[in-house]
Amino acid sequence: MSRVETAAAITVPPSLGALFVGFLSMSLFGFGGVLPWARRILVEQKRWMDADEFNEALSLCKVLPGPNIVNFAIIYGSRVHGPLGAIAALVALIAPSAVIVLAMGMAYQRFGYLPQVQNVVAALSAAAAGLVVAMAAKMATPLIGRPGPGPAVAVAVFVAVGVLRLPLPWVLAVALPASIALSWYVHR
């Protein structure tokens, strides 16, 4: 499906209330990582963005300081409703999670020494790793077959950081300008 066909399938931007509820549901159901839920809700369920738009916004969020999903909420919220949208998305994303994490932290402080609790935490770690792999696969799908350096840059960054264990800031310092230059060269 081309980007034009995908864009035609996207619905109108959400109302401010729908934006708040969408990010609230991400916060409440995004255990193990909110980004996979964000993609599922924004791209697959609500169709407020297409896969390319999601990847582009997330790519920007990854090079900005701060948590990626927080940056994403602010960028998307402001994109559809200005500063009020950014605030609505941010509050909906952070408030429920903060309450849940504080409660779980207090419970872990009290019961974390128990072997049963340690086993649950180990199982949750495996589930979280699976979510990261699934998210990476979904993000890579629109890159495959797209003209340009995207797939090659993605593989190079993966090898540099994941296999060679090079520091991420140094890899990004090289990969970002190289990717921009290659993309400019291919699309000129």
Features:
disordered N terminus; single chain; mainly alpha; 8 helices; about 0% strand; about 190 residues
Describe this structure in words.
The chain is mainly α and 188 residues long. The chain has a domain at 3-124. 79% of the residues lie in helices and 0% in strands. It is built from 8 helices and no strands. The longest helix has 44 residues, at 68-111. Mean pLDDT is 87; it is low at 1-8.
* N-C termini distance: 23 Å
Give the uncertain stretches in residue-range form. 1-8
- What class would the helix/strand composition place it in? mainly alpha
Coarse morphology: globular
Strand content: under 5%
SSE series: HHHHHHHH
Q: Give me the Rg, rounded.
A: 19 Å
Determine the fraction of residues in helical runs and give it as a percent range: over 70%
How many strands appear in the DSSP assignment? 0
- The residue-averaged pLDDT reads 87
Number of helices: 8
What's the main sheet like?
Answer: none
